Amino acid sequence: MNKSGRNSRYLLLILFGLILLASCVDTRKVAYFNDVKDSTLIASKAGLEPVIQKKDILSIAVSSLSNEATIVFNTPNLPASPIASTNNTSQTAGYLVNEDGFIKFPILGKIPAAGLTQKQLENNITQLLVDKKLLFDPIVTSRFLNFRVTVLGEVNRPGVVYVPSEQINILEAIGDAGDLTIYGLRDNVILIRQQDSVKLIKRLNLNSSKILQSPYFFLKSNDVVYVEPGKAKVASLSVTQQRLPVILSGLSLIIILLTNVFKL
């Protein structure tokens, strides 16, 4: 083999080695539950019972033996209107919990709602209807119409996730947002939650199976999940912008050297 052939082979081997080194990635950083072994049984937390908050919109239905007597109680105080959202969800008519924590219910007037569970509110309305002798043996059912969480940051489809089932965990929310991108920090996901008059900020590690036992595994309405970008993305963006001219110059130099070698 002549000298030019050996030189070209050496250059190709060097380039191939550099490509292999650049492609080495620790997959444990992008995997969920990398500490879980086969057939592992993990006790998870039970789902949270939603608590009514200010600005919630509730659907409240009343039924009894007399259909005519219940009609007046099934007229919501908030008309249906469209909601501007990423998934074009429409707002169904319901009862708005005002800033004072009350709803305005037909005939019964203002009823406290904020801070109660759905079951507690249903029992209170039922008792009021019975005490005032407005209905006999009424049945009251309620639902959240605006149960939603927001997922932002390094996910494929950031935005608002509406939850008709009134229960969602952090993995389901991220799944609805299209999963994390390869640059998202799975070991440092930020949860922002409103608690009374303060904001709770909690950092969660999705690489660990302990998240399944965390009290923050299940999300509450109006929670915000933010996925931070890793250093790799920040570095890749800044390095690409700063070193692109250098890289192009280097490639040009390599092409010139290879051309000269093959001419020898």
UniProtKB/TrEMBL annotation:
GO MF: polysaccharide transmembrane transporter activity; porin activity
Name the record gives this protein: Polysaccharide export protein
Segments forming domain Polysaccharide export protein N-terminal: 50-141
Keywords tagged on the record: Cell outer membrane, Ion transport, Lipoprotein, Membrane, Palmitate, Polysaccharide transport, Porin, Signal, Sugar transport, Transmembrane, Transmembrane beta strand, Transmembrane helix, Transport
SLBB domain residues: 148-227
Transmembrane portions of the chain: 244-262
Annotated GO biological process: monoatomic ion transport
Subcellular location per the Swiss-Prot or TrEMBL entry: Cell outer membrane
A single cellular component GO annotation: cell outer membrane
Source species: Ginsengibacter hankyongi
